[in-house]
């Protein structure tokens, strides 16, 4: 019973361990919201390790089940049988003991009766001798009773000796031998249970060993260089980095358009604009960097193709059903399927139109990226016009693509020295007007909110980043998405902007 209790507690511990391991594996298993991490080798290796750990938990559960079924249940049943057998042996022992005690009592009773009768016969003889009389009838009877008691005592004595000999040489040794055999079987059963316990655990070791080997293999499959390249491939923008900042001659008239403060203000505004546009933007994704725009459009095209395939399958199924109805009118009305067919047809037209638009936008992005690659491979570099702060920085307001943080700190320190001078300068001249086509909420610093149909002044054109700098009055100025407005530039202002 003690060993059975030990095995049961051991099985409970294994089951609890397996449950905790399974829960741990489930807790750290990649969620659907983080499925983008499946492209990295270290994430794949970690997921594989969790799966192997779950397999280890399964093996531990199997061990607990084997311990319960093969040992605990069988030993519990055997314990009941053992108790019944032992009870039988003890009952036999008690019956044997009661028999020898009964025989002993019979012997003592015969002995006492024989002793009493002898004493009475002896007293009767003394009385007869004293009065010198012949033996009376009473004396004869007492002597006869004493003789009969003697015979009964001899018989009881012989019977007790036989019973005692049988008790100590036959009955009790047999009972003890049976108890000894029972104990040997019990001990042997414990040995078998211990062997089964070890075999049950040894049985799962090869599978656990294979799981550990698989964990080792997954660790070898991690490639840091491949993962970092994946990150670069996912997050690269495709924009050219800003060029060198040109020397500004402060002895001449200061030009607002290329001042350091304006450059830094644009970079700061660009960061805010980029964060704003990560969550929303125009349909053509022109607010995104080229590489991100291409990936976004490609994903959208793949999704549209899947939707088109589903709609076509539904259309084919409806057409087949209509043919069945036409051949067998009793199965249904073919005309009842026309509204569904028309709805599927309109959905297909809409999806195909959406697909063409996205494919056109994707072709535009691919052509720009290919031109950019050819320029880089040809060694043309950036010309002086493109590397000015007024053009390069505004080509994409986000300055986060520049890795030179020391230069940015220098710009900030220099801009703080001349803030007071810049505050007194005249604002940039208007180069045209624009009309808003859609409403826009400028929630971040550097952007300007507008309503549909509003007329604004254009301060700077779109430099290729999808943003145009506009002004409502002398105090309200900022960037708005180029795709949200229609621009009307002045012919004289175009030349001025070219110069700037």
TrEMBL record:
Disordered: region residues: 118-150, 261-289, 364-404
Sections of the chain in a coiled coil: 294-321
Name recorded for this polypeptide: Formin binding protein 1a
Biased composition (Basic and acidic residues): 365-374, 395-404
Stretches assigned to the REM-1 domain: 287-364
Domain named SH3: residues: 429-490
One Pfam family per UniProt: SH3_1
Gene Ontology cellular component list: cell cortex; cytoskeleton; plasma membrane
Family: Belongs to the FNBP1 family.
Polar residues bias (residue ranges): 382-394
SUPFAM superfamilies attached to this UniProt entry: BAR/IMD domain-like, SH3-domain
Keyword Cell membrane: yes
Subcellular location: Cell membrane; Cytoplasm, Cell cortex; Cytoplasm, Cytoskeleton
Domain of life: Eukaryota
GO molecular function: lipid binding
Keywords: Cell membrane, Coiled coil, Cytoplasm, Cytoskeleton, Endocytosis, Lipid-binding, Membrane, SH3 domain
All residue ranges annotated as the F-BAR domain in the record: 1-227
Lineage: Eukaryota, Metazoa, Chordata, Craniata, Vertebrata
Transmembrane segments: none
A single GO BP: endocytosis
């Amino acid at each position: 019973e003690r060993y059975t209790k030990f095995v049961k507690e051991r099985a409970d511990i294994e089951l609890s361990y397996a449950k905790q391991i399974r829960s741990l594996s489930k807790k750290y298993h990649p969620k659907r919201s983080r499925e983008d991490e499946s492209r990295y080798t270290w994430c794949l290796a970690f997921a594989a390790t969790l799966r192997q750990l779950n397999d280890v938990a399964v093996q531990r559960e199997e061990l607990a089940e084997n311990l319960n079924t093969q040992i605990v249940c069988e030993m519990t049943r055997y314990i009941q049988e053992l108790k019944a057998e032992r009870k039988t042996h003890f009952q036999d022992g008690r019956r044997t003991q009661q028999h020898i005690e009964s025989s002993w009592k019979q012997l003592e009773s015969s002995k006492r009766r024989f002793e009493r009768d002898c004493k009475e016969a002896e007293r009767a003889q003394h009385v007869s001798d004293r009065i010198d009389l012949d033996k009376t009838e009473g004396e004869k009877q007492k002597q006869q009773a004493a003789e009969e008691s003697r015979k009964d005592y001899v018989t009881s004595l012989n019977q007790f000796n036989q019973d005692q000999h049988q008790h100590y040489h036959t009955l009790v040794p047999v009972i003890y031998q049976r108890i000894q055999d029972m104990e040997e079987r019990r001990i042997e059963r414990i040995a078998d249970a211990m062997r089964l316990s070890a075999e049950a655990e040894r049985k799962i070791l090869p599978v656990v060993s294979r799981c550990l080997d698989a964990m080792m293999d997954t660790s070898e499959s991690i490639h840091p260089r491949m993962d970092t390249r994946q990150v670069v491939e996912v997050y690269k923008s495709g924009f050219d980095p800003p060029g060198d900042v040109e020397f500004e001659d402060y002895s001449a008239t200061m030009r607002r358009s290329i001042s350091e403060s304006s450059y830094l203000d644009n970079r700061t505004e660009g960061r805010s604009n980029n964060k704003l546009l990560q969550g929303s933007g125009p349909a053509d994704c022109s607010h995104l960097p080229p590489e991100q725009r291409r990936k976004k459009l490609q994903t959208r095209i793949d999704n549209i193709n899947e939707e088109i395939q589903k709609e076509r399958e539904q259309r084919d199924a409806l057409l087949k059903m209509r043919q069945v109805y036409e051949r067998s009118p009793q199965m249904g009305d073919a005309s009842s399927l026309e509204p569904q067919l028309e709805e599927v047809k309109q959905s297909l037209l809409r999806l195909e139109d959406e697909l063409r638009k996205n494919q056109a936008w994707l072709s535009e992005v691919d052509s720009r990226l290919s031109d950019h690659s050819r320029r880089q491979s040809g060694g043309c570099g950036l010309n002086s016009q493109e590397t000015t702060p007024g053009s390069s920085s505004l080509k994409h307001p986000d300055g986060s693509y520049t890795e030179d943080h020391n230069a940015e700190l220098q710009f900030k320190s220099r801009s703080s020295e001349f803030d007071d001078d810049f505050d007194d300068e005249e604002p940039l001249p208007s180069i045209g007007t624009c009309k808003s086509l859609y409403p826009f909420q400028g929630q971040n610093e550097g952007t300007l909110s507008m309503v549909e149909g509003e007329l604004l002044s254009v301060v700077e054109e779109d430099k290729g980043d999808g943003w145009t700098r506009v002004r409502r009055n002398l105090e309200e100025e900022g960037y708005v998405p180029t795709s949200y407005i229609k621009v009307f530039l002045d012919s004289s202002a175009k030349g001025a902007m070219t110069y700037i």
